[in-house]
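Obj.: predict assembly geometry.
Materials: sequence records (below).
Method: joint structure prediction, all chains together.
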Amino acid sequence: NAGVTQTPKFQVLKTGQSMTLQCAQDMNHNSMYWYRQDPGMGLRLIYYSASEGTTDKGEVPNGYNVSRLNKREFSLRLESAAPSQTSVYFCASQGSLGTDTQYFGPGTRLTVL
Amino acid sequence: RKEVEQDPGPFNVPEGATVAFNCTYSNSASQSFFWYRQDCRKEPKLLMSVYSSGNEDGRFTAQLNRASQYISLLIRDSKLSDSATYLCVVTPMNTDKLIFGTGTRLQVFP
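Observations (raw structure tokens):
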């Protein structure tokens, strides 16, 4: 039982390049989330998926797209990376609404030059 | 005003000390409250949930004051291993989205 896994762990991009961050969970959770974490800003929600086949914008969705490929996998895509997207990205999953905790992946450290 | 506010610290305390963190939230309709712990360059992990009646887990005690809209975390007999950033987290009503504070950094020294 690996919990939440993310790939890659580190990535360096040039401005304008695209990439997809992968996330998978093996806990049979319904909800999945993508956050970014920047110094002094805390964790901010980019997109989330309450169930397979649905996605919704969070607080900071501009410049990102997501795909809930199946119940296990939720990917985040940067179509044209910008230096402002340099951050640490965390994926998380949650079993049920309200009281259940969110479990986080180990994070992806992205630098955009 | 931020939805969840915390003192960023750092709080530097000696081993064995008692330390307390507070957190305030702006949405009075918030329904669930948590403290998460985040070690340097690691992912956040749930430390404990916060209930209206208070919650104690070993050396850790969490309290909720709905009237004043604040949450507290008390750590007794601090250990070196308690050094981390503590994130206050709030869930608005009828949603499974979490709102994170920016965290309070704790450094316990020998």
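Conclusions so far: The first strand of chain B starts at residue 4 and ends at 6.
To do: check interface contacts against the pulldown list.
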